[in-house]
Amino acid sequence: MHPHTAAVAPTPLRVSAGARPYLLAAPSAPTAPKVARDFVRAVLHRTPLAPLADTAVLLASEAVTRSHLRAPAGAGTTDILVRVLTAAHGLRISVHDEGMATAPAPRGEAGRQPDPEQPDRGVLLLTRLADRWGTTPSEGPVRSMSLWFELYAAGGDGSAGRGVSG
Question: Which of 1, 110, 149, 156 is positioned for an S-S bond with 133, CB 3.0–4.6 A?
């Protein structure tokens, strides 16, 4: 972006007629990130959102890896839920598990020391590649959190979008 050009705030993804949800429940296992990558790629294959596939697959894989690594010990029965919501102008992917009791923060955030036991590369990638991202706490008997991100199609919201190029 040119230094004298004001950034245009992206329009949040709105659920509209024609929005489609897709849901994957995968056991928290070392194979979960690959299952999530294949799922996201299959959902976006041959759709108008296919140009977002590489970035969506990368970010979903990082989010699922983070969830798997943060899952409670002996988590053979814990599932990681991946929800993909597609709309005409973009997509939202949410990753939910029972191991995220605290919101992730990018490395170097003021007042926080990086935890060597917890990966934060995925959060750095979210910060750099997603048009929007955040966390949503889930209430219930087990404290958990959903990590979500949005990617917008180029021109779908007046901005060029971000991402990786294949």
Answer: 149
| Helix (H/G/I), strand (E/B), else coil: 122 | helix
pTM of the shown model: 0.74
> pLDDT tens digits, the chain, 166 residues: what are they?
334 444 445 556 565 666 789 999 999 899 999 999 999 999 999 899 999 999 999 999 999 998 888 776 654 568 899 999 999 889 999 999 876 555 555 444 444 444 555 556 778 899 999 999 999 887 665 667 889 999 999 865 434 455 444 3
Between 121-129 and 53-70, two packed helices, what is the crossing angle to 10 degrees? 150
Say if CB 129 and CB 55 are below 8 A apart. Answer: yes
Give the Cα separation of 36 and 49 in Å (integer): 17
List all residues 6 or more positions away from 73 whose beta carbon is below 8 Å from its beta carbon. Answer: none
